[in-house]
Design brief:
By secondary structure, this protein is an alpha/beta fold. Helices cover about 35% and strands about 25% of the residues. The protein contains twelve helices and 18 strands. An eight-stranded mixed sheet has the order 3-6-2-1-9-11-12-10, with helices on both faces. Strands 14-15-13-16-18-17 form a six-stranded antiparallel sheet, with helices on both faces. It has a two-stranded antiparallel ribbon with strand order 4-5. The chain binds aspartic acid (ASP) and magnesium ion.
Length: about 400
């Protein structure tokens, strides 16, 4: 029996007419013959509102169990409303809460981890032709209380359910046509990417592209669940979208997307004693304070035995990092540290980039041709990032999008 999990996000299910559009899509998919389990989010904005209500009722956050009972309500409402929309179309459908499908979690309220799902009854229901509409984002803790999985957690519910039901795919319906090759507001020629690997999607998420909750992508990768990101706003079953799976990227060119982040500050430490000892101490101090550092370069200074160290971090951490490095009471007490908050990071994302020197060359050549100064560089298997002045970010993203051939037809 082919099974399919269809998940609808908050904008896809924001009001009665959107829920009707979801029901129509589900009906079309069902005609194709699959057994269907649906996972819903709360309507857009509702969880934020509930979170504020919880903040008012429990300002110290001491009753997290009751807080979760409130937060989980939005999904429950949407599940039942969507089941009714399906029934209006003459289909058999019923809603389920997380605990009714045996979505068991640990007891970490607000960030619970799914431990198991009881699939026997659910499988019988859907294989018998009834559409199960499951409230996402919620489960049942060991003490019998409602738990929630963390913001964006209905993606996680959907992937976990798809794995448990051995579904042929988990379709994530949202308000965009898939994962784009760059931010379409910045690059008008950006297009949805047809196929991506899990690693690439995770890398894009870590570089600022928000599509799916990262934990859910990690789970999909671990359980080998094929994901499809699709728009629910096209009026019919969408044809395009982005498919994410194992080896999904093999059939296309190496680079798939250009990401950027404007939230970068550069710190330069001049006249740092050369050698690994001072360097080790700098990063030990930052690590102790929980400050994450991204791109790092060390180069020889103007004098023998001195070096210049450049690294980037998030803007919110910059002042603390500066005072830790320069604090006279601290053993580092560096006196020549400067900070530049107007930096951005641009990243080329793709598979197997480390072994593709040509890609790094194309990136630097392109930035150079546009007179964009490169402050620091980092590479991994799936990305090459460069720190650049914030004013140049739009130009850099557009130029790289073109240089890597992403402006051309859909791959
Ligand atoms: N409604 C929850 C949230 O807004 C879960 C989700 O939408 O995935 O975070
Ligand atoms: Mg979401």
């Amino acid at each position: 029996m082919t099974r399919l999990v269809m998940k609808f996000g908050g904008t896809s299910s924001a009001d009665p007419s959107r829920l009707e559009a979801c029901a129509a899509l589900i009906a079309e998919r069902q005609k194709e013959g699959a057994s269907i389990a649906v996972v819903v989010s709360a309507p857009a904005g509702m969880t934020d509102r509930l979170e504020r209500d919880v903040g008012t009722a429990d300002p110290d956050g001491q009753w997290v169990d009751e807080g979760d009972a409130v937060l989980a309500a939005g999904e429950q409402i949407n599940a039942a409303l969507l089941a009714m929309a399906l029934r209006r179309l003459g289909l058999r459908a019923r809603s389920y809460t997380g605990w009714q499908v045996g979505m068991l979690t640990d007891g970490a309220h607000g960030a619970a981890k799914i431990q198991s799902i009881e699939t026997k009854a659910l499988t019988q229901t859907i294989d018998g032709g009834t559409i199960a509409v499951v409230a996402g984002f919620q489960g049942l803790g060991p003490d019998g209380r409602i738990t929630t999985l963390g913001r964006g957690g209905s993606d996680l519910s959907a992937v976990a359910l798809a794995a448990a039901l051995q579904a042929q795919a988990c379709e994530i319906y949202t308000d965009v046509e898939g994962v784009y090759s760059a931010d379409p507001r910045m690059v008008p020629t950006a297009k949805p990417i047809a196929r991506l690997s899990y690693e690439e999607l995770l890398e894009m998420a870590s570089q600022g592209t928000k599509v799916m909750q990262s934990r859910s992508v990690e789970l999909a990768m671990a359980k080998n669940v094929t994901l499809r990101i699709l728009s629910s706003f096209e009026g019919t079953v969408p044809q395009g979208g982005t498919t994410i799976g194992t080896n999904a990227a093999l059939e296309r060119a190496t680079v798939c997307a250009i990401s950027y982040s404007r939230d970068e500050t550069r710190i330069m430490v001049h006249r740092l004693p050369a050698g690994s000892e001072a360097l080790t101490r700098v990063f030990a101090v930052l690590a102790e304070a929980g400050i994450q550092v991204d791109l790092i370069v060390q180069s020889p200074g103007n004098h023998v035995n001195e070096s210049t160290l450049v690294f980037s971090l998030r803007r919110g951490d910059a002042q603390q990092a500066l005072s830790l490095l320069t604090d006279p009471c601290h053993k580092l007490a560096l006196d020549e540290v400067s900070l530049d908050p107007d930096m951005a990071k641009v990243s080329v994302i793709g598979i197997g980039l480390r072994s593709q020197t040509r890609m790094a060359h194309t990136m630097f050549e392109t930035l150079c041709a546009h007179d964009i100064a490169i402050g620091a560089v980092a590479t991994s298997e799936t990305r090459i990032s460069a720190l650049i002045p914030a004013v140049d970010v739009e130009m850099a993203v557009r130029a790289l999008h073109q240089a890597f051939g992403l402006d051309q037809a859909r791959t």
